[in-house]
Specification:
By secondary structure, this protein is of the alpha+beta class. It has one domain: Arc Repressor Mutant, subunit A. It is 41% helix and 14% strand. It is built from six helices and six strands; from the N terminus they run H-H-H-E-H-H-E-E-E-E-E-H. The strands form two sheets. The chain has a three-stranded antiparallel beta sheet. It has a three-stranded mixed beta sheet with strand order 5-4-6, with no helix packed on it. Helix 2 packs across helix 3 and helix 3 crosses helix 5. The longest helix has 13 residues. The chain is globular. The N and C termini lie far apart (57 Å).
Length: 164
């Protein structure tokens, strides 16, 4: 029951433009994590990012805070294991991270990958489909769903080129 309450509050707060530090600290505490400066800052950046973000982009956004590359990596790993964030890989061998909010290390929604520009978007309005039972002795630990195609921005560019 507590996890459901956390998820409902988390989703509502996630839509705010800027997540205040008090709420971020509450999320970390509910995941039984210490509220270190690195965790708070990384989670703040991820919450403000509309799309999954790479380790490199996070590090750049945190320049001047004193948080180094290794700390960002360790924070991301901890947040992923606790289920606050999940990683997305688009076939280019670069992990991107996005806030999930399920307190479970797997994905909570599908992702769309544009074949033209490479942009990855979380499709948060669509829940992950239920997994059917698998064969005896198999344990499913993670489920991922990627949809590939052309994003609206690239589609409009292609349409404009054809019209000329």
């Amino acid at each position: 029951m507590i996890l459901i309450h956390w998820r409902d509050n988390f989703t509502a707060r996630q839509n705010d433009a800027a997540m205040n530090e008090k709420n971020i600290r509450a999320i970390l505490r509910k995941a039984n994590l210490r509220c270190t400066r690195g965790r708070v800052d990384v989670l703040q950046v991820l919450l403000e990012s509309p799309d999954p973000t790479t380790h490199e982009d996070l590090h750049k956004k945190l320049q001047g805070t004193g948080i180094n590359r290794v700390t960002v990596y360790r924070v991301l790993e901890t947040l992923q294991k606790s289920g606050i964030v999940h990683r997305v890989e688009a076939g280019d061998r670069i992990w991107r991270f996005a806030v999930c909010g399920r307190m479970h290390p797997g994905h909570c929604h599908p992702h769309f990958i544009c074949r033209q520009c490479g942009k990855i978007e979380c499709l948060k309005e669509f829940p992950m489909p239920d997994m059917p039972s698998v064969a005896k002795d198999y344990t499913v630990e993670e489920q991922e769903m990627y949809l590939r195609g052309i994003c609206p921005n690239c589609a409009s560019k292609i349409k404009n080129l054809k019209c000329k």
